């Protein structure tokens, strides 16, 4: 059956890494007798330039009519002077809200071949394998009122952090489900010593935990979690937390691997299409130079194949190809070292495709 994928290249290096992704998907389709249809839409700064809207209705329609959505990246200094409500990032926030993508999954795994790239000691990062489950459609990023008031010395800014019981329970339950499938431990991250929303969060974790007796769980304050991610990241299996905390902690955790260019993410709804994207930004300083690292985007494809298309064999084949390429010493500029030479975005993509072909037997 044909799988329809909405491709939203976005800004900066987004078009380059999305091109890599479509090449790899086409090869997977050839090897495993699948057909992928790509439908393109505008999001972020490029959409503002064309339509004045960071999330055009046409793009939203394309996404709703697709089986999955692949996003490159949004934003850049070109649009930094726009009012907050009109900036490229609002397109992404709006897409998450409109598609009800409430659960953001960010795996953090150390590749053996890249352990030396981590700013932490190898004995600290070796064996790290954790999953951050972040609530994505509530909290301070979406709360109202959200405004600036007054002028001069009397000027103030207001953001509002709001969570409902339903929003908290569904993401907490998702965290317990993943912990049940993995190693059986959940760390719930909050700020219950200060925030009322976190106290409600903690109460709901206690309630939901009764449905998962096979999962052990702990509560951890967010400031301590930030420290523990650096001190001993191996202690974590699944972390579940609210929107802003998850945003910050997942970016911190990404640097355990040595590069933002290495980590994927998936944003899931209850029923509709999921959104798959690298967690790195648009990197406008290197856009168009052909040196962006496509591996986070290609790793996002493994999550798409797993969660959206139920193709675990294909997902494993792609992940193994990425592992093989890194083990052979192939590096883009962001992960190179004194012993390796940087290759281009296209060269890295071709290396992954070569590994796919070399390692897999095409379906008959």
Salient structural properties:
364 residues; alpha/beta; Isopropylmalate Dehydrogenase; 2 domains
How does this structure look, described?
The chain is of the alpha/beta class. It has helices at residues 14-32, 45-51, 57-64, 88-98, 122-125, 165-181, 196-209, 222-231, 243-254, 295-308, 312-327, 345-359, and strands at 3-10, 36-40, 68-73, 103-109, 129-135, 147-149, 156-158, 185-190, 216-221, 238-241, 264-268, 274-278. Substrate binds at residues 96, 106, 134, 223. NAD(+) binds at residues 76-89, 281-293.
TL;DR of this structure?
By secondary structure, this protein is of the alpha/beta class. It has two domains: 1-106 and 260-364, Isopropylmalate Dehydrogenase; 119-257, Isopropylmalate Dehydrogenase (3-Layer(aba) Sandwich), CATH 3.40.718.10. The protein has helices spanning 14-32, 45-51, 57-64, 88-98, 122-125, 165-181, 196-209, 222-231, 243-254, 295-308, 312-327, 345-359, and strands at 3-10, 36-40, 68-73, 103-109, 129-135, 147-149, 156-158, 185-190, 216-221, 238-241, 264-268, 274-278.
């Amino acid at each position: 059956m044909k799988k329809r994928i909405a491709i939203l290249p976005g800004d900066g290096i987004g078009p380059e890494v999305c091109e890599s992704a479509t090449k790899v998907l086409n090869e997977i389709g050839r090897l495993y007798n699948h057909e992928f249809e790509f439908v393109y839409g505008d999001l972020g700064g490029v959409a503002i330039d064309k339509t004045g809207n960071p999330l055009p209705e046409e793009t939203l329609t394309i996404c709703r009519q697709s089986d999955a959505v692949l996003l490159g990246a949004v934003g850049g200094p070109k649009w930094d002077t726009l009012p907050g409500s009109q900036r490229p990032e609002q397109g992404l926030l709006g897409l998450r809200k409109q598609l009800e993508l409430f659960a953001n999954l960010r795996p953090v795994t150390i590749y053996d071949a890249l352990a030396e790239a981590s700013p932490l000691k190898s004995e600290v990062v070796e064996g790290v394998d954790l999953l951050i489950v972040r609530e994505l459609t509530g909290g301070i990023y979406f709360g109202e009122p959200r405004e600036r008031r007054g002028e001069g010395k009397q000027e103030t800014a207001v953001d509002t952090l709001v969570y409902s019981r339903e929003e908290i329970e569904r993401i907490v339950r998702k965290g317990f489900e993943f912990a049940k499938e993995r190693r059986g431990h959940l760390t719930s991250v909050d700020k219950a010593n200060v925030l009322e929303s976190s106290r409600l969060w903690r109460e709901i974790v206690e309630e939901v935990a009764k449905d998962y007796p096979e999962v052990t769980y702990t509560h951890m304050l967010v400031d301590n979690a930030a420290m523990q991610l650096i001190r001993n990241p191996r202690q974590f299996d699944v972390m579940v937390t609210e929107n802003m905390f998850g945003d910050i902690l997942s970016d911190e955790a990404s640097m355990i691997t040595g590069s933002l260019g290495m980590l994927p993410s998936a944003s899931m709804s209850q029923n509709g299409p999921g959104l798959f994207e690298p967690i790195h930004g648009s990197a406008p300083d290197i856009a168009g130079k052909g040196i962006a690292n496509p591996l986070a985007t290609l790793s996002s494809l493994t999550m798409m194949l797993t969660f959206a298309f139920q193709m675990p064999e294909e997902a494993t084949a792609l992940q193994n190809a990425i592992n093989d390429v890194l083990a052979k010493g192939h590096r883009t500029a962001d992960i190179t070292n004194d012993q390796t030479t940087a290759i281009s975005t296209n060269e890295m993509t071709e290396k992954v495709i070569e590994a796919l072909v070399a390692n897999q037997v095409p379906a008959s």
